[in-house]
Amino acid sequence: MSRPRAVVVVTGSELVRGERTDLNGPFLAREALRLGLEPARIAIVGDSADELEAALRDGLAADACFVSGGLGPTHDDRTVEMVARALGVGLHVDAELEQQIEAVSRAAAVRLKRDYADFAAGVTKQATIPDGARSLGLAGTAPGLLLAHRDGRVVVILPGPPSELQRLWPGALDTDAFRALLARTRPPGRRVLRLFGVSESAVARALAEAGGDGDGVEVTICARDFEIHVDFVVEPGAEARADALEAAFVPPLERWLFSREERTIEELVLGLCRDRGWTLATAESCTGGLVAARLTGVPGSSDVVLLLRSSPSTARSRRRSPRRWRTAPARDSAPTWPSPSRGSPALAAAPPRSPSGSSTSTRRDRTAAPDASSASPVTAPRSAPARRSERSTSSGGS
Fold this sequence. Notes:
Alpha-Beta Plaits; 6-stranded mixed beta sheet
């Protein structure tokens, strides 16, 4: 049997303008697949009423429509109104929900030392829901909503902030309407192959030579973080076909295959270290600590990763202010300059004296420039501080 289809509608003009990256669409699509739904598409739409209504009408034709964003108290939070319009149902103020939102808003008014009257209109707006909808609870002042409509279809409306959406999502799964939808499907199987050091083209060629996907097996090939990820999505009853395809597909790529699970490369490295009783430390330059950051980003990594601390003298040097250029009186004796290396052009003995006749040096060099009369015919490029000294002296003389 075919799986019920799910469409995700993500709202927010800031997403359409590219000011923020959508995290809710991928989360809801992964959840749909995990539950046995077929994620058909993710639509990102701005806050324009016409654009939003059109996207919702399209999404509501699916068996499940998951909507995120547009549940706030401001004028451009239009999701509830547009869902009701697209479904052809009315709106009403839910008295119990209004009391819950009011309690949160009054506490915020006290904390912020503001008059509750500033919040009152927004409270009523957020407590206004489509006829037939049920509340999934609050995240802040924004409610999650679920509404069953024609032929067992379901629409789930959730707040835009990812943490709030994910907090209210389990409540949707616990409703009778959603359970009835899931009773019509069986979750597909999933197999993961991860490779390193081989091109996407070579992997695609190996898949074609193995017979390609189809007949209940969908294969996707994706380059990600210098790796090639190959996913098998296996419909119930197509396991034998998946086994045969995998048996023909893997051998030509065996030398590049390093994992058959979804753990990240850093998790795999930490696991291998634990298996061998090893610890690990990093000393990074060009990567600027990125390797250590990825390793320590895994919970529980401290039993493997050793954090190296800088010495007190190094720490003190980092706290110093940037060194400034200064001029200092010349030393009594001229320095000895290194001889040019064999086979290289002769270089200058030192930068020339300044036009004022006084020999100067910088604290960076910590040496005085020798007399210009003793300089070699081939002179070295003058340092930036010496050139600045010349300009300041000549301008003062004029």
